[in-house]
């Protein structure tokens, strides 16, 4: 989430000071903006989908998420010259900063809060029926702390279940 805000601030700074500040300073601020990119939009398109979608549809949903990000990038680049002619280069940078703030808000609103325990409940609830995915992800149900498992324990449990059901696990290939 810090990535969206950091990108927004950097783009707003560069957009507001375009033509007034030293080019080297603008390049440095833009470089910092690229660092924030890795912690914001970049992360939301590949880390979160890889964690929250049920195993049965994870690849498909991850692909849809990735394709959506790439479609957005294409649309942005396609319309960049049109927008630049209309509002100027510094206007495009300012607009980019505002869009990053909008991305921050949309991510806050549409990304369900989740923990390792939520993912464990999701795996159990969607084993045979995916229709409860949304209800599990958005539920506020809390379990006692003693019932919480670490993420590594959940992964070990999933590997054990996969191995016992006849499926191959990556751990069996390591030996």
UniProtKB/TrEMBL annotation:
Q: Which Pfam families match?
A: Sugar_tr (PF00083)
Q: Which GO terms describe its molecular function?
A: transmembrane transporter activity
Where exactly are the transmembrane stretches of this chain?
87-111
Keywords on this record? Membrane, Signal, Transmembrane, Transmembrane helix, Transport
Domain annotation Major facilitator superfamily (MFS) profile: ranges:
1-115
Compartments annotated for it: namely: Membrane
Q: Which PROSITE patterns match?
A: MFS (PS50850)
Top-level taxon in the UniProt lineage: Eukaryota
Where is this chain primarily localised?
Answer: membrane
**Bilayer topology:** Multi-pass membrane protein
**Does the keyword field hold S-adenosyl-L-methionine?**
no
What GO cellular component term, any one, is given?
membrane
Query: Which residues constitute the signal peptide according to the record?
Result: 1-21
Which PANTHER family does the entry mention?
PROTON MYO-INOSITOL COTRANSPORTER (PTHR48020:SF12)
Write down what this protein is called. Major facilitator superfamily (MFS) profile domain-containing protein
Q: Which organism is it from?
A: Polarella glacialis
């Amino acid at each position: 989430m810090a990535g969206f805000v950091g990108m927004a601030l950097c783009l707003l700074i560069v957009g507001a000071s375009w033509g007034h500040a030293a080019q080297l300073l603008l390049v440095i601020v833009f470089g910092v903006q690229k660092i924030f990119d890795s912690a914001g939009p970049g992360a939301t398109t590949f880390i979160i989908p890889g964690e929250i979608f049920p195993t049965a549809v994870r690849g498909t949903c991850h692909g849809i998420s990735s394709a959506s990000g790439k479609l957005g990038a294409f649309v942005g680049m396609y319309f960049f010259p049109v927008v630049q002619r209309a509002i100027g280069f510094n206007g495009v940078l300012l607009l980019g900063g505002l869009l990053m703030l909008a991305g921050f808000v949309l991510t806050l609103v549409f990304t369900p809060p989740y923990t390792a325990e939520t993912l464990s409940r999701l795996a159990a609830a969607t084993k045979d029926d995916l229709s409860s995915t949304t209800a599990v992800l958005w539920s506020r149900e809390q379990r006692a702390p003693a019932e919480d498992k670490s993420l590594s324990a959940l992964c070990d449990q999933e590997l054990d279940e996969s191995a016992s059901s006849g499926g191959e696990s990556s751990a069996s290939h390591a030996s």
